[in-house]
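Milestone 3.1: sequence recovery, worked example.
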């Protein structure tokens, strides 16, 4: 599956691609599936994405699941389930990339499979180096492409906990805003921590209310300010400007607000910046942004998925289509949570 970066609707299935070059990595992997997300839609719309140097097309797909065909390094065995880490460190490298924290890259020169200057995983076979290959529990054969979005929320939770431990910290209530794949997986990881979980979304029908209820969490469709509790932790996954501001004001004293949704920008709203400052200072609150994940977070995510109810994970995958039906797969539909493109048989 390829696009011409910067050209809208250039998505095409190219049938005469060469085998992945050995320089791409020692481990040869047979693709099983890729998950599709908002970033793919932006790349297809020509708003984002960069081809590898000296190439004019980008192979897309960054939420991978594959089966190892061969690994001469002996790190993995043929038949192992594997996902590829998306981001690679910048070549300088910056202080963070130098210690494997490419999720915290300081100079923006990192590369990303299927997004930025590295070929993606939406192809029959791909290669990866052992340090960017994450082995999955064999039981995750149908849902393992959820590892990438889970790694993003594993990082968010890792940082929430590190910030929380700046002082005595006994969080009880979590609010997740937005019940898309990231929000639902953030809620899953919250329930695994034994917290009381609330999820807020606009949808009053479709699969979201039931998916939240199945986690033992509460589902809300009211405005943030009408919620009958003040959350100790917020994971904001909508990027909607009014929701972002409202959750900052709504958090309980010593509250932590993790911003994980990306706003499109260009829209102004009126709000009282002084009142927000006052609330943050007088209640010792923290607001921080979180994106991407490093190897440690991918490992945490693999453990979280193994511990989760497999049928709940499977119910996040609202449409699964073979690669020949890619046009349908990449066209968003009402009620989609996560759409998956399947390879091979
Ligand atoms: Zn860097």
């Amino acid at each position: 599956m390829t696009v011409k970066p910067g050209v809208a609707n250039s998505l095409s299935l190219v049938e005469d691609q060469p085998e992945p070059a050995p320089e791409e990595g020692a481990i040869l992997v047979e693709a099983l599936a890729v998950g599709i997300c908002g970033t793919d839609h932006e790349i297809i719309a020509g708003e984002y994405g960069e081809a590898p140097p000296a190439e004019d097309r980008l192979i897309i797909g960054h939420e991978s699941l594959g089966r190892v065909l061969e690994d001469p390094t002996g790190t993995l065995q043929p038949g192992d389930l594997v996902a590829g880490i998306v981001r690679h460190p910048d070549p300088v490298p910056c202080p963070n990339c130098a210690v494997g924290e490419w999720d915290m890259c300081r100079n923006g020169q990192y590369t990303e499979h299927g997004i930025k200057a590295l070929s993606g995983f939406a192809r029959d076979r791909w290669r990866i180096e052992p340090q960017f290959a994450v082995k999955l529990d064999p039981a995750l054969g149908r849902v393992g492409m959820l590892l990438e979005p889970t790694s993003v929320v594993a990082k968010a939770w890792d940082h929430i906990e590190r910030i929380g431990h700046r002082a005595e910290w006994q969080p009880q209530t979590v609010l997740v805003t937005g019940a898309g794949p990231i929000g639902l997986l953030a809620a899953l990881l919250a329930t695994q921590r034994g917290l009381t979980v609330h999820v807020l979304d606009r949808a009053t029908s479709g699969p979201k209310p039931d998916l939240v209820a199945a986690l033992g969490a509460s589902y809300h469709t009211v405005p943030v300010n009408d919620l009958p509790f003040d959350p100790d932790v917020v994971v904001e996954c909508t990027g909607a400007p009014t929701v972002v501001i409202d959750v900052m004001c709504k958090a309980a004293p010593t509250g932590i607000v993790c911003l994980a949704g990306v706003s499109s920008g260009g829209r102004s709203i009126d709000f009282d910046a002084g009142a927000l400052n006052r609330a943050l200072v007088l209640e010792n609150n923290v607001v921080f942004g979180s994106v991407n994940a490093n190897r440690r977070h991918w490992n945490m995510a693999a453990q979280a998925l193994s511990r989760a109810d497999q049928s709940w994970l499977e119910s996040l995958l609202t449409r699964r289509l073979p690669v020949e039906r890619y046009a349908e797969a990449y066209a968003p539909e009402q009620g989609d949570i996560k759409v998956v493109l399947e390879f091979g048989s």
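The longest helix spans residues 147-164. The chain has two domains: 2-136+309-342, 151-289.
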